[in-house]
Task: structure prediction
Amino acid sequence: MPTFSFIPARAAVTALLLSLSATSAFAAQLTTLETRWLAAAAPVLAYAKTLNLPIDIIVQPKAGPNDVPLAMGFADGRCKMVLSMRGNPNAETILADVVDDQRDILIEAMAAHEVGHCWRIARGHWHALPAGFTEAGQEIAATPELLELSKQMRETRREEGFSDLVALAWTQWRHPAQYGHVYGWMRKVRDDQPASHGSHDTRAWLQLAPHGGVFAAAAGPFEQATALWSKGLLVPE
Result:
């Protein structure tokens, strides 16, 4: 099943970097699949621009062996939305079990998920707990390395949980009639994780949002996600 996650921004030597206002010359070089994904993500990117989130788009000329189709990185004070479609079998299969006319809404939700990462890191909140929250208890591991790995997985899981909620809050805001479809797909992705409490096991947060009514109507999607995310942090790991 697909994974969508924050990644460290790789060097742009092998990538094509552009601003949100893509040139027509660049657009002509995009593949049909890249064009579809960017078109589906456009409403999310347009909203991010109104918030002055510093997002660049990178289209890799060739995907690496472990690249996911869509990911977010951060370098030089800017967020990097990375599309790794070319030579990436997962780019073709990630939505293979979804009927064609239902795919764009899922791509849009994935884009919202990634922009959720950008929002967190641009505000200086990456891996930070909300005000008033502290780590409780004492974890024990066989080695310091395992202890650090567990901490990293826990921090990543929290960020993934936040961004999953952003994707759902966005869907409720923009496409409320499609909420159940997006939620069901995301829940299946997370239920298919190879192990519980892995870095992308966000079910503690997804179970808080089985319907769109859980999000406060007066707030924006990031603020809506933040409120529900804090509740999920109270669920014992």
Observations:
- Residues 118-233 form one domain.
